[in-house]
Description:
Layout: E1 2-4, E2 11-16, E3 20-25, E4 31-35, E5 40-42, E6 47-49, E7 54-56, H1 57-67, H2 80-90, H3 101-116, H4 154-164, H5 172-176
Antiparallel strand pairs: 1-5, 2-3, 3-4, 6-7
Amino acid sequence: MLSISGKPGLFLLKSQTRNGFLAESLLDGKTVNVSGRHSVSLLSEIAIYTLTAEVPLREIFQKIFEKEDGKEAISHKESKDKLEEYFFEILPDYDEDRVYPSDIKKVLQWYNMLVKNNLTDFSEPKKNEEESKDGGEAILEPKAATPKKAVTPKNQVQKTSSAKKGGATKSAASRKT
């Protein structure tokens, strides 16, 4: 699951392209081309601040899922007070100074979107061979550009070759003296 800056909702990674990747929107099912200029966040890398630690978003989704018996949570369009009260029931020690109402709205909107699309496995991901070496989630990365060979300008090649043949090449500065 991905969140892409400037684009509403969540996205599923579909395939890699030469300049980025294709992602499918969970809102409308449309495929979008995502380039390097977009800021992309993996949901597995997002956490919510509490007074003692950071809680992964997956764990918060799991708590909402258990509270709602697998059904949708309250709408993200509820009043600020209702959203904060609901979130306090889910995560009583969340840091109210660093978790804004807009963050709570986004968490609830994403949770409801995942439930609507039947993507409700919020358990910890299992580690397998496809995961990266540092234990992170395996993702498609754009191929690195192959370095081009250094090309010597023609005039330098000619001067070098004439010098090898025994011809003396003088610069304009040395001719004046």
